[in-house]
Amino acid sequence: MNERLDEVLLFANQNPSSWLATSEDNQPRVRGMLLWFADETGFYYHTGKVKNLYRQIQLNPKVEVAFIRNANDPVNFETLRVTGSIEVVEDKELEDRLFQERPWIQDNKERAGVETGVAIFRIVRGSAFIWNMSHNLKENEAPRVSF
Fold it and tell me: Each residue of 89-122: pLDDT tens digit?
């Protein structure tokens, strides 16, 4: 793995609160999401199959997600922007791992009183870059990494 990709993955894993943008009927939709994990195979998330997010990524798998670190520091904050395509992952071992690492998912399903499956998805075939104030007026010059 290359150093730039290592830096991007570390940024995402250390700052898992993120904003995921989809599109529906040519209207952008954004929501806060908690990254599950990121590695060289993609940026992993999950959602309920009854949710609008799941329907949106089925219709249009192209997304962008943004992470932020040092959010309260107006000079030294940085963002990580990741653009790519969604791939739904159907893997029993990965699903078992999800429920083991995030037991609150089952609790949420039970409290909601809605029967739904959980979809694990990852962002793949994309690019990422870390933006900071040194790129403020030169965003296109920020170094990108493909994954």
Answer: 999 999 999 999 999 988 777 777 777 889 999 9
b/e map of 48-87 (b: 16 or more CB within 10 Å)? beeeebbebbeeebebbbebbbeeeeeeeebbbbbbbebe
Q: Which CATH superfamily is domain 3-134 in?
A: Electron Transport, Fmn-binding Protein; Chain A (2.30.110.10)
5: exposed, middle or buried (Cβ count in 10 Å: 0-12, 13-18, 19+): middle
Q: Concatenated DSSP letters for 107-131?
A: HHHHHHT----EEEEEEEEEEEEEE
The structure's pTM equals 0.92
What residue segments make up the domains of the chain, in order of their start?
Answer: 3-134
CA 10 to chain centre: 13
Specify whether the CB–CB gap between 96 and 131 falls below 8 A: no
- Count CB-CB contacts under 10 A for residue 2: 11
119, exposed or middle or buried, with CB in 10 Å at 0-12, 13-18, 19+? Answer: buried
